[in-house]
Amino acid sequence: xxxxxxxxxxxxxxxxxxxxxxxxxxxxxxxxxxxxxxxxxxxxxxxxxxxxxxxxxxxxxxxxxxxxxxxxxxxxxxxxxxxxxxxxxxx
Length: 91
Fold this sequence. Notes:
Blueprint: H1 2-10, E1 16-29, E2 32-44, H2 50-60, H3 78-87
Antiparallel strand pairs: 1-2
């Protein structure tokens, strides 16, 4: 997982990746209820880079269907938001 996180930073698709270990996911898949231990990544990027980021994650993810969702930032610490913009160049 660390390799994927580092690759996101090296490719300038993300400014920061938080790794949240020990996530239990319970979900319906192909008609059955599954339960798996997973790792959740919170990836900070520009909204204009979400498509490229999602494409990269899907290309390296072991699941047939990778969970990649985007949550818009409504408000935030202005210096932090500037840092994200500086770390991730626009498309």
